[in-house]
Amino acid sequence: MKSQEWVYLKHHPALWRILLGILVIPLFYAGLFLASVWNPYGELHHLPMAVVNQDRATRTLDWGRTVSRELVKSKSLQFHRMTAAKAQRELKDGRLFLVLKIPANASQTLSHLATAPKQLKVTYDTNAGQSTVASKMGATAMQKLQTTLNQSTIQAELQASQAVARHLGQRLTLTAKQLGQLQQASTAGLPAAQLAAATQKIVNGLTQAGVQLSEVRRADQLKQLAMPVKLTQHDVVAVANNGTGMAPYFMAISLFVGCITLNIIYDARKRHGNYRNFAVAWLDKMGFLWGFVVLAASAMWLGVWYIIGLRPLEPGKTYLLCLLIVLAFFSLVTCFRLWFCLTGAWLMLLFMLFQIGASGGTYPIELTNPFYRAVHPYLPMTVAMAGLRHTISLGGSIAGISWILAGIAVVFSLGTLGYFYWHRTDSAVL
Question: In percent, how much of the chain has pLDDT > 70?
Answer without folding.
Answer: 83
